[in-house]
Amino acid sequence: MKILITGGAGFIGSHVVRLFVNSYPDYHIFNLDALTYAGNLENLSDIEHASNYTFIKGDITHADFIDSLFERYRFDHVIHLAAESHVDRSITDPMAFVNTNVFGTVHLLNAFKTHSMPFHDKVLFYHISTDEVYGSLGETGLFTETTPYDPNSPYSASKASSDHFVRAYGETYALPYIITNCSNNYGPNHFPEKLIPLFINNIVQEKPLPVYGDGKYTRDWLYVIDHARAIDTVFHKGVTGETYNIGGFNEWQNIDLVKLLCSLMDQKLGRPKGSAQQLITYIKDRPGHDRRYAIDATKINKQLGWSPSVNFEQGLAATIDWYLDNTEWLDRVTSGAYQEYYSKMYNT
Ligand code: NAD
Ligand code: TYD
Does residue 254 have its Cβ closer than 6 Å to ligand 2? Predict the structure, then answer.
């Protein structure tokens, strides 16, 4: 069985690739990744020589390349994670999100329809999406699989668009698909532009912790390894044509999360209690900032038997340990282009 995983050098993708390569020696895993600023093959150095693993450097926005790749390998299944994924970058450069998230997804769908569907009895295009497509919740309520799409950022609009294309190919061309919409992930190998890894890095370096607006925005956090486990479950047990929400029933206001992170970091670094909290700096809000996300994960819990394996305190402690043990990884990804981006974003 040949499985193409796109975006496998990124944060979530690298955990999915590792899980599949290690758990399923009979599957051959092809990891297609353009290695943008967010892609890092170092994330997969432990499995790079596995006999059931092949890395392919390539860009999903190049239609001819994608077509010839599928013609050559005729993948049985696709797990599609490659994307531009950071909301703040989508505000400054929306076209990169349209190109990769929308056009790139449609190129994959076309190649899958032409070169995979006619050649196998069983095929699946599994599209990985986000809860951000549902827009913003009020103080109560949860996103379910039937919540109408209402995206507010160029990132979430591009993901919503890609979800619609996948569904439309299912309806129009009988393309077998599954879509999952997951809440905010955190964990090892997360690029330090997102809230948790950025703040861990800044606390280590005693730099300001830039909290947007009043800090009372709410996100629902899931440990990345639990997301990878959910993708494994859905891939093997999910029903074609269905969508599943993935989340840990774990809502946190940003400021409460930041304070928890600060106190754990003080303990881990052996600094006096309250040191990290002094770094908290409220800054100008993100435009179009969604107030609250929260996932109802009942369907995947009940129908497929998946639930998270760690609670937030455990996951956060493991994440901090990973960053403190992997300072070289952090140094390498925070050099060069990322430094420039950081200065532009936060005027430092
Ligand atoms: P990431 O930014 O860490 O990784 C994205 C990967 O895609 C990188 O390795 C990058 O090199 C690759 N890529 C980007 N453009 C490409 C292109 N044109 N061609 C080929 N490869 C390309 O992202 P992530 O956080 O791992 O997210 C993975 C997927 O999961 C995305 O589709 C994202 O929308 C979705 N998702 C993320 C979260 C989250 O909290 N991070 C939550 C829910 C869903
Ligand atoms: P982020 O990690 O960018 O994920 P998303 O926007 O996809 O939810 O941000 C999580 C929350 O943290 C979001 O409400 C924005 C906020 N945030 C800050 O307050 N400061 C920051 O520097 C960043 C990156 C995020």
Answer: yes
Q: In the β-sheet with 77-80, what is the strand arrangement from edge to edge?
A: 53-57, 28-33, 2-6, 77-80, 124-130, 177-182, 243-246
For residue 296, tell me if it sits in a domain: no
Domain check: are 237 and 321 in the same one? no
Work out which ligand 1 atom sits closest to the CA atom of 59.
Answer: 19
- 48 and 117 together in one domain: yes
Identify whether residues 207 and 137 lie together within a single domain.
no
Q: From the CA of 270, how far away is ligand 1's center (Å)?
A: 34
CATH of the domain at 176: 3.40.50.720
pLDDT in tens, 315-339: 999 999 999 999 999 988 888 666 7
Asked, for residue 73, whether it belongs to a domain, the answer is yes
Determine whether the shortest distance from the Cβ of 90 to ligand 1 is under 6 A.
no
198 lines ligand 2 (CB under 6 A): yes
pLDDT tens-digit map of 48-80: 999 999 999 999 999 999 999 999 999 999 999
**Nearest-atom index, ligand 2, CA of 193:** 24
**Can you read off the two tokens belonging to residue 166?**
């996948």
What residues act catalytically? Answer: 131-132, 155
pTM over 0.90: yes
Give me the number of domains the chain comprises. Answer: 2
> Residues 225, 154, 64, CA angle at the centre, nearest 5°?
80
- Residue whose CA lies nearest to ligand 1 atom number 5: 10
Bridge-based pairing state of the strands 218-223 and 251-253:
antiparallel
Closest residue by Cα to atom 4, ligand 1, is: 10
For residues 11 and 62, state if they share a domain.
Answer: yes
Full domain range(s) for residue 255: 195-218+251-289+311-338
**33 Cα nearest atom in ligand 1:** 21
- Going by C-alpha positions, the residue among 235, 318, 224 that lies closest to residue 12 is 224
